[in-house]
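I would like you to help me understand the sequence and structure tokens below and explain how sequence relates to structure.
___
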Amino acid sequence: MVRTRKQLAIHVLFAALVLLASFAAAEAQKGRSIISRVNFPRGRTTTILKGTVRRGLSHDYLLRAKGGQTMTVHLTTTAAGMSITILRPDGETWIYDTKDWSGELPATGTYRINVLPDTTTERPTRYALEVTIR
């Protein structure tokens, strides 16, 4: 079977579009995340982070801390379905689906606090995340 350059170009373009569509579908299922570093005001051990999330968009906060320190996290929001998940420095999920948590950190490194939206609504929801390290 001999193909002309035009036919070959059409087949390559079609394959590229199919591949691009599959990547877009995977990205839409996975959702997106806005990543920010947590900075404490000078001389303070507590900070309040504010934002708005919606279905398909979460906020991740990166926080450098030492093993043995105590971290307290409190999520304030009007959405019943919103929660936080905390990942350890090794990337493993450690604390899952909560609005309040306090405890001793097991290792030194960068922790990830993931603010997850309420997936039962398309409406954007505001939140305040209070983080304390001692």
User: Anything to note?
Assistant: The domain at 32-133 is CATH 2.60.120.380 (Jelly Rolls). The chain has two domains: 1-30, 32-133. The chain is about 20% helix and 50% strand. Strands lie at 32-37, 46-53, 57-65, 70-77, 83-87, 93-98, 100-104, 109-116, 125-133.
